[in-house]
TrEMBL record:
It is found in: Cell membrane. This is Sodium-coupled monocarboxylate transporter 1. The chain crosses the membrane at residues 12-31, 43-69, 81-101, 122-146, 166-192, 204-223, 255-273, 294-319, 398-418, 424-449, 456-477. PANTHER family: LD47995P-RELATED, SODIUM-COUPLED MONOCARBOXYLATE TRANSPORTER. NCBIfam families: sss. It holds the Pfam family SSF. GO terms for biological process: inorganic ion transmembrane transport; sodium ion transport.
Length: 533
């Protein structure tokens, strides 16, 4: 039996994506760069157009986590998560009308400069360090996620052959560390050489690749199942199509309220107060152009989230009678999409390559954006703000490049740590709320409560951060005691040779704070902001 593997065409497509990204970095670093200035490296000289900036805003946080995590989320829990698309629209609109114009008016490279002007340096440093720590971990998750899902040592399928059985390797054929190093090195190269212009234009390329990859998987997926109607019928019977969970219980993972309210707060902490996005707004020529970029981004992000959700429904429709996760064909639920691509779509040369390029693009866009924004924060907030040093514009540009290289290496080393965080989508969003929530709370306090002083800002931030860490760590420790909301999966039609063993873990002693720790991760950011205020 022929093993599903990558063809030469698939590898060529992936190499072309990586080389194209590197070439764009080289062009803007060596050919089109007029001077090695900080403004050019960090803010693209403030001369970027609306559309490329919009696509860059869109893909900066629509990473491989979205592309792998959203399909598996819908596969396991249903379509409630797709309300996130509405929350992203709400957050983009509020940012365009309220917060972005304020940052443009301040004309600051680091968003956290505002906190020093409004409160004092201690609040600014707290926010900067929280952002830096979060982005390092987040980039490591983004780098590790596709590497894990695509690694050849994780995905297996078993075939029954007459008088015996054989386990054959079903994978994309990419070693986990080859994936980590290739994405990490390419990102670090074009981010450090080409600066913000290279980051934005590679984001444009990667946005197109992501869209093509998702559409290709959807079209071929529907064909393999027998059409849209057949797929939706199976998904509906399996309880995957659901939009009416209106429970007021904050422990319920996804409800209309948690997704629209909590999701809007989560998205607003990204669009309104995250350094990565604020830098994008400063790159556009005019405030009106930055508003247009945010609205275009909202439309594009909605499309990407919904396309990823549709893939989740396709996955369920195809595996409704033989779930690879329960059957132990895959070791992590986030591997379900790559598994589907290799099992079902590998017969079409180039399609697995497009999928690989799609997932790699998701990682490249997020990591490159993060490296550039972290370099800005380290220089503006730590070196110049905390240490009180001064740099010429050209020397600051050179320092930014050096920091980008160092940070790229650190992110690659951190990929080992994130492997212990469980499901990538849940872990990433949970950590996002823990660290970005208090930062957003400090900005909210400054913007809307003129009576708040620097002491209030500092104590509010620390109190919020401690509460968030308490909830997050408690949830991680007691997660085996929490009620699972996963929808049923079947292995009724799996090959008879599959031996499924289920280990039941019974807690001898229930934690008295289990209800407190069971609060949905979607509420982390609203709790954090409320605590600060």
């Amino acid at each position: 039996m022929a093993l599903p593997t990558l063809s030469a065409v698939d590898y060529i497509l992936l190499i072309l994506l990586l080389l194209s990204s590197a070439v764009i970095g080289a062009v803007f670093g060596f050919v089109k760069s007029k001077k090695s200035s900080a403004k050019e490296f960090l803010l693209a000289d403030g001369g970027m157009g609306v559309f490329p900036t919009a696509l860059s805003i869109m893909v900066s946080f629509l990473s491989a986590i979205t592309l792998l995590g959203t399909p598996s989320e819908v596969y396991m829990y249903g379509t409630m998560y797709l309300y996130q698309a509405i929350s992203w629209i709400i957050a983009s609109t509020l940012t365009a009308l309220i917060f972005m114009p304020k940052f443009r008016e301040l004309n600051c490279t680091s968003a956290y400069e505002y906190l020093e002007k409004r409160f004092d340096r201690s609040v600014r440093m707290c926010a900067s360090f929280a952002f830096s720590f979060f982005m390092l971990i987040y980039m490591a998750i983004v780098l590790y996620a596709p590497a894990l899902a695509l690694s050849q040592s994780k995905l297996f399928i078993q075939y029954q052959i007459r008088k015996g059985q054989i386990a054959t390797l079903l994978a994309t054929g990419l070693n986990i560390w080859i994936s980590v190093v290739s994405i990490g090195v390419i990102c670090t190269f074009y981010s450090s050489v080409g600066g913000m212009k290279a980051v934005i234009w590679t984001d444009v390329l990667q946005a197109v690749v992501i869209l093509v990859g998702l559409l290709a998987a959807i079209i071929q997926g529907f064909i393999s199942i027998g059409g849209v109607r057949a797929a939706m019928s199976i998904a509906s019977k399996g309880g995957r199509i659901e939009f009416n969970s209106v429970s007021l219980d904050p422990r319920v993972r996804h409800t209309v309220w948690s997704l629209l309210i909590g999701g809007s707060f989560n998205a607003l902490s990204t669009y309104g107060f995250n350094q990565t996005q604020v830098q994008r707004y400063m790159c556009v020529r005019t405030t009106r152009g930055a508003k247009q970029a945010l609205f275009i981004n909202a439309f594009g992000a909605t499309i990407i989230i919904w396309l990823s959700g549709i893939i989740g429904l396709i996955l369920y429709a195809y595996y409704a009678e033989c779930d690879p996760f329960t059957a132990k064909y895959v070791t992590d639920i986030d591997q379900i999409f790559p598994y589907f691509v290799m099992e079902v779509l590998s017969g079409i040369k180039g399609l697995p390559g497009i999928f690989l390029a799609c997932v790699f693009s998701g990682s490249l866009s997020t990591i490159s954006s993060g490296l550039n924004s972290l370099a800005a924060v380290i220089i503006e907030d730590v070196y110049k703000g905390l240490m009180g040093k001064t740099l010429t514009d050209e020397r600051q540009g050179l320092a930014s490049k050096i920091f980008s290289i160092v940070l790229g290496a650190v992110v690659m080393l951190l990929t080992y740590v994130v492997s212990y965080l469980g499901s990538i989508l849940n872990a990433a969003l949970s950590l996002f709320g823990v660290l970005s929530g208090p930062v957003m709370g400090a900005f909210f306090l400054g913007f809307f409560f003129p009576q708040a002083n620097s002491r209030g800002g500092f104590i509010g931030f620390i109190a919020s951060l401690l509460l968030q860490l308490w909830i997050f760590l408690g949830a991680q420790i007691t997660k085996n005691q929490m009620k699972s909301e996963r929808l049923p999966l079947s292995v009724a039609n799996c090959p008879t040779l599959v031996n499924i063993t289920t280990t039941l873990t019974t807690s001898t002693r229930s934690n008295p704070l289990i209800d407190f720790y069971s609060v949905s991760y979607m509420w982390y950011t609203p709790i954090a902001v409320g605590t600060v205020v």
